[in-house]
Amino acid sequence: MTAKSTHKAIEETKERTFKGIGVSPGICIGKAYRVDTGGVEVVKKYQIEDDGLVEEANRFKTAVRKAGDELQALIDSSRNKFNGHTPILETHQVLLKDKMLYRRTLDTIEKEKINAEWALRKVTGILKSMFQELDDPYLRERAVDVEQVSERILRNLVGVDAINISEIDRRVILVAEELSPAETSEINLERIKGFITDRGGMTSHTGIIARTLEIPTVLGMGNITRHIENDDLIIVDGLQGLVIVHPREQTILKYEERGYQYEQFKAEIIRDSFCEAQTVDGIDIKIMGNIELPEEVVTVRDHGGDGIGLYRTEFQYMNRLKAPSEDELFEKYRDVVEVMAGKPVTIRTLDINGDKAMSGNPESTEPNPAMGLRGIRFCLQRPDIFTSQLRAILRAAAYGEVRLLLPMISNCAEIKETRRLLAEAADALKIEGTPFNLDIKIGIMVEVPATVIMADVIAEHVDFFSIGTNDLIQYTLAVDRGNPEVAHLYHPLHPAVLRMLERVTKVAAEKKIEVYMCGEMAGDLVYVPILLGLGLNELSMSPQAIPMVKCFIRTLNLEEAREFLQDILSVHSAGEIRQMVYHRYGDRMARMMAEPPLTQQTRETQSI
Hints:
nine-stranded mixed sheet; alpha/beta; Glucose Oxidase, domain 1; eight-stranded mixed sheet; Enzyme I, Chain A, domain 2; globular; 17 strands; TIM Barrel; about 600 residues
């Protein structure tokens, strides 16, 4: 071996750390297992004669039918595997026959007289671009679903077998460019320690399944697959979103200890998660769960959630030819309400860009959809769709405690019109003799600066506020956190954001209405002392975060948190405020996450 090649070999085995998105917490150490899920790399274009167009169209239809059969087989085999996340696979089934993918591909074959593979790739490219241009992060992730469904069809067209993860027969960590929900559903927890991918994110369906499986997962690694070979030793840190390749012995020992501490702590806090989150000075704080799929309610219950603080209802409207029926919505809502057995369930009405989400049809994209026809604006413009949902919610309320949450409210007129439609729906249900309950609390999402400014007026028309920090911060600071050019300006601890939160909580106290938080800040330990100091008495978060937040709250003194709030409100720098938080609470937060003591410097290093 030459000196040059020796140097290269040493470089390739040198410990390297990569940063991604930790979507499922935990630590695992093991050998990498590369999974080639890149799909069909090469597709050739060729013309089809007129007399062969029908046969080519049938070839495409056969490939779609086979893809549907494959997905159905996965659904049947995995219904009890990961808490009922089969709706994600069912969404892929719907996409197979979606007019934007299925019909347009057939039209392209006929009009351009080209082979099915090329037509499918062309249509998929157009649809991906449409979704990726949307501001809503959830909708942007649906571009991945389109691509994954397309690749499944394409494999059948060219006769390439899909990877079978269920056949892996040893303990490994999966490494792939991307894993689809179908592939993730095949994971055998006795064989797969964790997984990492180049693509994906917190709101991707693969990320949702990973959190349900509760295995360490880091997504959105960029090009991690270029740096890892089969059987390379790697460490996956889902707590901090780190992957360490070729770790040194001392690094392995450190992470083995951290992994052991985390698992011990996890077992302890889950065991105690059914106890109340009571501060050391005796104040009870309700810790609720955010859910997207009805099946996730079981995870909230099993992690000690005090109820559902945010039930996002958009999933049932996604990628459909038409809106779901009232009965379909009612069945889903009732299931959630009954599982929670008397605990509150906060159902947020439809909060997407309406028609663009249904049928996977984002063609009529608005110039700025984040500030366009979304949330309550769309619902009031489409009372047929809205009334159907309101009726379903009223019917579900007959089976337990339901709270109605309205998104994107910016004025009182929107609340009044919603109350009118709700009363009409109740009258109609009464005439029909259908069981319902109109005695429900009605609240609004506080996510628009105008709502904060008019909070004292709006409070006269609602029973509670629920602060959605994700949009509120984005609108307040004029920062799109999904834009890498300005994402660094997105600061939850910006003094302007904290002052807005303070105003909302003060108004709520004066008007004697409840104030909750369901945004991402609620589930982050860094912000919990501040939120308690502000007077929030209910926080809602990812189900997996519930035990840790409850445990942290039990170490806090509410009076001390209030005094600390006054200290930070006099500071004019987000960085300085964060440093103050770490100085006061860093040791306790570190214990919650089985980490070494946190400082501002270490946190910044981790985020590079």
